[in-house]
Amino acid sequence: MIKKKEIKKENILGYDVCTLTIIECVHLIFSTINNKQKKYLACFNPHSFAISLKDLLFAESLREAAILVPDGVGIVLGSRILGGKIKKRITGSDIFYELSDYINAKEGFKVFFLGSSDITLNKVIEKYKLDYPNIEIAGSLSPPFVDEFTIEENKNMVQYINICKPDILWIAMTAPKQEKWIYNNIEILNVRFAAGIGAVFDFYCGNVNRNNILLTNIGLEWFSRLIQEPKRLWKRTFISAPIFIYYILKSKVIKTLY
């Protein structure tokens, strides 16, 4: 069972960010699944913080996540500036790969893929079956590509997922859409664990090239991704990141003075 004291956290700008290692996170998630609890994981980065300033529902969905992982070198830097303990980021990809490896060794688990296009989902499923043969793929669904689902669309999505009864629900609809959807539906979903993992499906099946390991290790993965997807990511780099750093420095000054 997940207990509050088991989840080591530190507060960054009003959000309780997990300070566990990736292995500790995986063990915690596995405990959740085994105890038939219903929890979800969300990723926290400078861009999500910037969005949360104007989107209160998104902010609430981040705060209600059982596990909020530090997804971005900016969070690690922010923690360091504020005297925190976060040493390394944990991305949605990290959770996807490490948890899949772990439950594949255990056998008897089912996953569901929600998000992206049917073409991408087919690629993901084909590769996942080869990589993790002991994990049952309960189902997949490409939801309507709209900003907000209608009541009927949402009902059909939830109903289909519940019929499939997965242990783990992987959701790749990008932030803030995926986090708000999980927050609004987690109580009526017949799953044990859900995770919003953004563009991981595209990385996993090869639609988007993964970044050079060296760039990733030195914290410059954002630069490589910006070059590949400038139209989608320029706001994260040139607007969201400065906003986040501003609030971090402001918080540091306030702590120093008071």
Oligomer: single chain
Please tell me what the overall shape is. globular
What order do the helices and strands follow? EEHEHHEHHEHEHEHEHHHH
- Strand percentage lies at 15-25%
Distance between the termini: 38 Å
Organism: Polynucleobacter kasalickyi
Transmembrane segments: 12-30
Protein name: N-acetylglucosaminyldiphosphoundecaprenol N-acetyl-beta-D-mannosaminyltransferase
GO molecular function: hexosyltransferase activity
Describe the structure.
- With 258 residues, the chain is an alpha/beta fold.
- It is built from 12 helices and 8 strands.
- It has helices at residues 22-34, 46-52, 56-63, 73-81, 92-106, 118-131, 151-164, 177-185, 200-205, 213-217, 221-228, 230-257; strands spanning 9-12, 15-18, 39-44, 67-70, 109-115, 135-141, 168-172, 193-196.
- Helix 8 (177-185) links the parallel strand 7 (168-172) and strand 8 (193-196).
- Keywords: Glycosyltransferase, Membrane, Transferase, Transmembrane, Transmembrane helix.
- This is N-acetylglucosaminyldiphosphoundecaprenol N-acetyl-beta-D-mannosaminyltransferase.
- Pfam families: Glyco_tran_WecG.
Characteristic key phrases:
258 residues, alpha/beta, Rossmann fold, 6-stranded parallel sheet, two-stranded antiparallel ribbon, hexosyltransferase activity, membrane
Short description:
With 258 residues, the protein is of the alpha/beta class. Helices cover 53% and strands 16% of the residues. It is built from twelve helices and eight strands.
